[in-house]
Design a protein that fits this description.
It comes from Pararhodospirillum photometricum DSM 122. The chain is mostly helical. It has 6 helices and no strands. The chain is rod-shaped. The protein starts with a helix and ends with a helix.
Length: about 260
């Protein structure tokens, strides 16, 4: 009995496991591995099915999205083209309006220039002729005084000498009229310059500085010739020649180069 108990004790406490317990543990391990395999396989199959379903959905929905995007792009392009066309037409209308105003200004400038020149020339000729007549009358009166002429006749000559003075003094008012006309043209030129600046800003013109430099050169050249012609005009009037017979100098067309370009 003692030996059997010792044997039983050794067999239960020894290194060799119990076969029944070993089989139970082995079965549990195998079932756990199978369960993990089943879950892995199920997850893989689920992902594959989800991918296939997503592919089918995208293939069926992609044409709809593509059509919607194409329609949106077409609408945006058409709207942008219409907006650009409207802005371009407005700009063209504004340019046309500005050009009409420029033509009116240049026509007014030419008319005022004609009036100023005519008034100045007429006044200058009248003054020159009146002063020359007075000079001749004074010379005649001096000759009569030296020769002992009748005082009554000399008094009549003095009264005749006084008659054109009022007309000559009235002719001097052309300077005030000319000044007012020039001030009016100066004011118009300021308004025109503002219009041009606004139009250049609207057009985004970046080459205006180059044309401004070119215009300044032409303006200086025209001013030089104008001053020379004016000096010759004054000299012709002073020596008693008609300004129409005197050469007026070279004529410069300021916008000729721009129009040809």
């Amino acid at each position: 009995m003692v030996g059997q108990a010792g044997t039983t004790g050794r067999s239960s406490q020894g290194c060799s496991p119990d076969p029944a317990q070993w089989l139970m543990r082995k079965g549990t391990t195998m079932r756990s591995g199978q369960t993990e395999g089943v879950w892995t396989l199920g997850t893989t199959l689920g992902l594959v099915a989800l991918g296939l379903w997503g592919t089918l959905v995208l293939e069926s929905v992609a044409p709809v999205f593509a059509g919607a995007l194409a329609g949106t792009a077409f609408w945006l392009g058409r709207w942008h083209a219409q907006a650009q066309g409207t802005a371009s037409r407005r700009l063209h209308y504004r340019i046309a309006d500005e050009l009409v105003q420029y033509r009116v200004f240049t026509r007014l400038l030419r008319d005022q220039n004609t009036r100023v020149c005519a008034t100045s020339e007429e006044a200058a000729l009248t003054l020159a002729l009146g002063l020359r007549q007075m000079s001749d009358q004074l010379e005649t009166l001096s000759h009569h005084a030296r020769s002992g002429a009748d005082p009554a006749a000399m008094l009549a000559e003095l009264e005749a000498l006084n008659e054109p003075l009022s007309d000559l003094l009235g002719r001097l008012q052309f300077q005030d009229i000319t000044q007012q006309q020039l001030m009016f043209l100066s004011r118009l030129s300021v308004l025109l310059d503002d219009h041009i600046a606004e139009l250049l800003h609207a057009l985004g013109d970046r080459r205006s500085l180059e044309r401004t430099t070119r215009f300044k050169e032409l303006f200086d050249k025209a001013f030089e010739h104008t001053v020379m012609a004016s000096q010759r005009h004054d000299h012709s009037v002073a020596v008693g020649l008609s300004p129409l017979d005197a050469p007026l100098g070279q004529v410069v067309e300021l916008f000729e180069a721009e129009e040809r370009a």
